[in-house]
Write a structure and sequence with these properties.
about 100 residues, mainly alpha, about 0% strand
Length: about 100
């Protein structure tokens, strides 16, 4: 009879350990799912960051090109203003000579 009780106690302990293992396994599965979702989110954020970096590089290139065009336009305007100034001096100089 005592052996039966010992066996029953052992079986109870094994069943308790099994139940504990099941609960622990379930917690681990839930944690694994959470980590998987976080990884998916992080991957999405990383992809967005890469897209933003590409957009920044493109916009920097466009800005550089615009600054180059602006510089060219400024140089052309200065050249035109120089010509206008020269023509004005010629006209003023010629007018003064005729007036004397």
């Amino acid at each position: 009879m005592e052996q039966i009780q010992q066996l029953e106690t052992r079986v109870e302990r094994v069943l308790q350990a099994l139940e504990h293992s099941r609960r622990h396994n379930q917690r681990l599965e839930e944690e694994c799912e959470k980590l998987g979702r976080r990884l998916d989110e992080a991957t999405g954020i990383q992809e967005q960051n890469e897209q933003l970096k590409q957009q920044i590089a493109r916009l920097e290139g466009e800005l550089e090109a615009m600054l180059g065009r602006e510089s060219q336009m400024r140089d052309r305007l200065l050249h035109i203003l120089g010509k206008i100034d020269s023509i004005e001096h010629e006209i003023i100089g010629t007018g003064e000579m005729k007036g004397t």
